[in-house]
Amino acid sequence: MPVPNHPSGRPILAAELLAIGSELTTGEIRDTNGGDLAHELDRLGVSMTRLVALPDDLPTVTGAFREALGRADLVVSTGGLGPTPDDLTREAIAAACDELPSVDPTMARWLRDIFDRRGLVMPDRNLKQAWLVPSATALPNPVGTAPGWWVDRPDGRVIVALPGPPREIQAMWRDHVLPRLHERGAGAGAAVRTLRLTQIGESHVAEMLGDTLLHGENPRVATYAKADAVEVRISARDERGGPSGGRTAGEIVAETASAIEERLAGHVFAHDDETWVEALGVALHGLTLACAEIGTGGTLSALIGEAPWFLYGEVTAPGSSATRRDRDLRAAARRVRDIAGADVGLAVRARERGKDTQVAIAVAIGRRTTLGRRLAFLTGPMGRRRAALAACAELWARLSERSPGVS
Amino acid sequence: MPVPNHPSGRPILAAELLAIGSELTTGEIRDTNGGDLAHELDRLGVSMTRLVALPDDLPTVTGAFREALGRADLVVSTGGLGPTPDDLTREAIAAACDELPSVDPTMARWLRDIFDRRGLVMPDRNLKQAWLVPSATALPNPVGTAPGWWVDRPDGRVIVALPGPPREIQAMWRDHVLPRLHERGAGAGAAVRTLRLTQIGESHVAEMLGDTLLHGENPRVATYAKADAVEVRISARDERGGPSGGRTAGEIVAETASAIEERLAGHVFAHDDETWVEALGVALHGLTLACAEIGTGGTLSALIGEAPWFLYGEVTAPGSSATRRDRDLRAAARRVRDIAGADVGLAVRARERGKDTQVAIAVAIGRRTTLGRRLAFLTGPMGRRRAALAACAELWARLSERSPGVS
User: Fold this and answer.
1) DSSP string covering A135-157, please?
2) Counting runs of H as helices and runs of E as strands, what totals does chain A give?
3) Between chains, do B301 and A312 touch, taking CB under 8 Å as contact?
4) Distance, in angstroms, between A401 CA and closest chain B CA?
5) DSSP element (H, E) containing A197
6) Can you tell me the distance from the alpha carbon of B391 to that of B305, in angstroms, rounded to the nearest whole number?
7) What was the pLDDT predicted at A324?
């Protein structure tokens, strides 16, 4: 159970996210911070009451902070910490908390130093980046000029104001926000684990898990059909037992995960946020790869082309002269492997047939070259992306059967 | 000016979007519908008061509908229209409007027909997809079993409830929502145009546009630095003139756009939602393309690999044996062009040097092969993606100088 380290005794159980910027509400820029932070907070066992994107309008943003403080223990905002008149997150928090901002001398010196080192004179308007309200402390920004705010309300609620750029948020969250949230007891008594499955459908997974598991309270088990995997998410809270205390959240999640992994053996290719690139890296175990893709529009290279074990890829349109030499897909897998001097060759060909995409996949490892076929059920770009994912799944299965210890 | 076609006389000027689903507030699934619809509404001159993602919790969702109806003329929701107990958008709208839902016989028949045609018996729980409240009419779903709702409130406010899958939303929006919004006057008297620029920085664009243009009220002109372009967005409303009526929004936007295009000639590669693929398709004017990319991790093939004029691409890791044959980038551009039997060859090589990515680009058109160099300022995946965009920009510039009529 959360052990809040604050005189108010308020635990941090519910949070609300405010993404601030008119470029978000006009659809000019898509917010990715909200989802990333929701995911982070979910892992701490903090439930999200809502995610809100707001325009740069002072009354609107002030009102949103007030409402959020009425509902949640923690309010996290992103954006609006720049030096321009449009950047009004500080003003909104000050108004919502009925406090007055003033320039903090230490922060002002830090800001001036940044400009000095660049040989620039700091414009006056930048001074508002050195503001604080009495209940706020600054969150250092290691990669930008906009410090964040950690605001401790008298009733134990917390506001965390972060800048907008994802890179700055990540650094500030990891180094300064997460440790303080842990101090305040967030994440204590809660645990989450996600299993990522391949070569099996969501309804089949649900059937194998059974109603007892899927409708339990602790652990909670849920399935999600994502583009690149079927996911099983297991979350738990500490049991409140008798004198012995019951099982911890971590124990419950670990026991449930290993029971499910046993039942779904051979399908779990990754855990938590692990991607196909990471899972294939583990399965390749030091081997290198070359790929030929025909009719998939570069979706396979896009998926794995940045991996260190990816040496060479060919992307060909169906029917082009470069394609005609690859009638035999097994030969193509060997050909690209040998051109690149790689250990493993992978060739995939996708053909759209009405609503379906027919996918043929060849994998060449050592002297053995295998050929598989699959059906992807969507035409167009999604069908092509599914073809690339099918190729990853096939490669992973062939590599895993080669070395049964790796899964 | 909007001419609302409703007895209340309320124009549709402000909207709020509610995306409903716990998978969004846990960060399991990222909402893309909100941004898409915000962009659609922005083009109609409807301003967005906020975008909200909510968990599947009846009191929370009901409260959000009530609050949104207090602020906006139009409330658009996505998700929560399925047949399961978790799908509670209909229940929330009914509660927020103080109305009772009942089964609509026509919709029930339509639903049963869908199951009949698949040889299935409709489960009882699906019957709630045939619900309506008295102030709602059904929005047909051409690609799923979840009809939407159009709810006309007595005060002229409107609720539009859409399903969650983007494909279903797009069809329903285009065929059934947009026509009704036009009938209600949305989009009348407003116009928007976006110019997409290449080979120029945002601050340089701002300087060339000047303060008068950037701080005007009608038209409003704003710049955005996006990953793939610097954008200039021009929006306007009809002038309220004397007896002659003043200029229309469309006229103001067209005049402003052509003045800006003249000032920024040679940089405007696309308009509105046009992508690099579309702009290059216009510039290629029937020619076909083959690409060699070295050290860019497949980002170029990912960007343009699905275009019909893309015949062949090679993706190689720096330092692999396949790369060594391409020391001379101009020769590589010609080599891939000839392998693929394409008209144009493009070769790009990216090298990470500390914080920068150095990019060399060769373009082979007919007998002429040109070599250009660029610097992309971010390392890692973003640097590689910028290298691919730099290659597109270089190709576009070479094609445009070849045929000055195309821009």
Assistant:
1) TEEEE--TTSS--EEEEE-TTS-
2) 15, 17
3) no
4) 28
5) strand A190-197
6) 14
7) 65
Cβ separation of B42 and A27 shorter than 8 Å? Answer: yes
- CA nearest A360: which of A293, A268, A279, A282? A293
CB-based contact (8 Å) between B52 and chain A? yes
For residues A179 and A188, is the Cβ–Cβ distance under 8 A?
A: no
Q: Is B316–A312 a contact, with Cβ atoms under 8 angstroms apart?
A: yes
Instruction: Classify domain A14-183 by CATH number.
Output: 3.40.980.10
Question: Which CATH entry fits the domain spanning B190-271: 3.30.830.10, 3.20.20.70, 3.30.70.2860, 3.10.320.10?
Answer: 3.30.70.2860
Complex-level ipTM: 0.80
Each residue's pLDDT tens digit, A333-351: 999 999 999 999 999 998 8
Angle at A261 between CA A258 and CA A264, to 5 degrees: 155
Asked if B53 lies within 8 A of A55 by C-beta distance, the reply is no
The verdict on pTM exceeding 0.90 is no
Q: What is the architecture, at CATH level 2, of domain B277-402?
A: Alpha-Beta Complex (3.90)
Task: Give burial (CB, 10 Å; 0-12/13-18/19+) of A286.
Answer: exposed
Interface of A with B in 271-300 (CB under 8 A): 290, 297-299
**Residue A84 C-alpha, separation from nearest chain B C-alpha, in angstroms:** 14
- B381 and A306: CB-CB below 8 Å? yes
> What kind of fold does domain A276-402 have according to CATH?
Maf protein (3.90.950)
A398: distance to nearest CA of chain B, Å? Answer: 23
Pick from A117, A178, A108, A116: nearest CA to A147: A108
